[in-house]
Amino acid sequence: MIAAIEPTSTWYLILAALLFCVGMVGVMVRRNPLVMFMCVELMLNAVNLSFVALAKDLGDIKGQTIVFFVMVVAAAEVVVGLGIIVAILRRKPQATADDMAELKG
Amino acid sequence: MIAETLTGPPISWFDLSPLLILLGAALVLLVAASLTPRWPRGLYAAFSATAAGATMVMGFVLWDDVTDQGARTLVGDAITLDAFSMFATIAIAVTVLLASLVTDDYLRREQMDGPEVYALYLTAAIGGITMAMANDLIVLFLGLEVLSISFYVLAASHRRRIESQEAGIKYFVLGGFSSAFFLYGIALIYGGTGHTRYDEIVGAVNGIVPTERKDALVLAGVALLLVGLAFKVSAVPFHFWTPDVYQGAPTPVTAFMASAGKIGAFAAMLRVLTQALPNWRDDWRPVVWVIAVATLVIGSILAVVQTNVKRMLAYSSISHAGFILVGVEAAGHAAGEADPGRGVSASLLYLLLYAVLVLGTFAIVTVVGRTGDSQTDLAAFRGLGRTRPALALAMTVLLLAQAGVPLTSGFVAKFGVIEAAVDERSYAIAIIAMLASVIAAFLYLRIMISMWITDAEAGDDAREAVRVSLSSGIAIVLAVGFTLLVGVAPGWIVSAAENATTIARSALP
After folding, report:
1. The pTM is what?
2. pLDDT in tens, B77-117
3. Contacts of B248 in chain A (CB under 8 A)
4. DSSP structure class, residue A4
């Protein structure tokens, strides 16, 4: 019989760090602007998870309220980012980050 | 169940007036302009310049007020009203004013006249001022995002140039990437200290002995915070976006990003490092030292090999960021002490002087860019001394000032940060800064040679003539006049900057 392991907030912090790394690597290796953008969102949400875990750890409500601010900011970023991505994909369908080489020097 | 009424913090609206004026103007501009037919020419720019002027006036009024009554925190201690934040407010208002003047001409030349760009200038200014005033890491994050999101749209705002949209998306992805690091830094500092307010972070450390784990969390947080800020100020090794974005974005927008963006990010960096994290100053100062040296050297050297003037000026702005970091490093020696040293005031002064310089320089690049904003190669400046001698002379003054030649504001700025470094016995970094400014001078000479000495080539006369409109002319004259005035008589502005930091220190608990 295996005793049920009680997850502690450290587990969630490690999970958040892993998610953050997944997002970070994704931005660096993926070339589709939309996927890169999703990876940035993953990084922000990984930080949200750490905020909640840390707030639980500290017994402090502030960390959980911060999450709402971050969610609003992320939503604003989505609006702007998708606008720019749509504008660029309309002119260059199937564009990847490597195709964007008008600016070089 | 007991219904509790939620009481918000008391808000002193008058003290917030610089932010409220900008917010109101941005909303009026967007709403009124979309409900009314096209405004007469120049009115959008005049409106935004007036709002910037009103913000500046309120900045001076409030500066006077905090000099009399002392610094205070507003909105539940979320933001600080002190001379430091008012100095940054005035500097950012100056950038909005000059950028609006330059943009007016540009937008009509490119046939995209409209209120959107001005409204975004105003919102970006709100973000920058919030960053400078913030007394809480989350408020700082919100300010940073308001500034950055406005910049993403501004960079992509030229609808017909694919380069502009490319700049927008590159800035957007990399900016979001760096914001995530910044936010993770905040989370770890929160985890380590249990607070996000600057004074509470200091209090938490002084009050209790930090355990080992907590200290590790805070140190990792400080590192991530520095990554995010270094990205925003385009310090090496987080500078790779700068040349592409500066080149691709519409030129007046580049001018605004280079000036207002740097003021906001550096003001935030100074405040966070010296007011929230003075207890870790021996940990972050060596990091700032390394970043500063790398930025100075790499920015200056890479600038020399460019052929596009906008890219050259992008690398030049990187090397200027290195100089300001020299001031930040000097501020690090005395962070948290009663006597703040010269570092903070020298960096603040550098920011204001550099903002005016870079706006003037990019204003000239805008008018030389001609229709389509495409003539930004070094060749476009060929023969400018022959065809438009006054314009070439103005450019020469501004470039000499950027190189740090005496009798210009650039000299006052560079002298200030190097003096601050020497004061704190950081001799090595002072010497590296002086060498880097010699290397960077070569870059400015190349543009001057192209304007005055290079022979005309066949086809030069067939190029579209360079036209300088009244509003761009006023902006250039103001920038050149300010550069020379400060160069000849620097005393008043140096003491204003010093005044701005002494009061900022007294705000500390």
Report:
1. 0.92
2. 888 888 889 999 999 999 999 999 999 888 888 888 888 89
3. 102-103
4. P
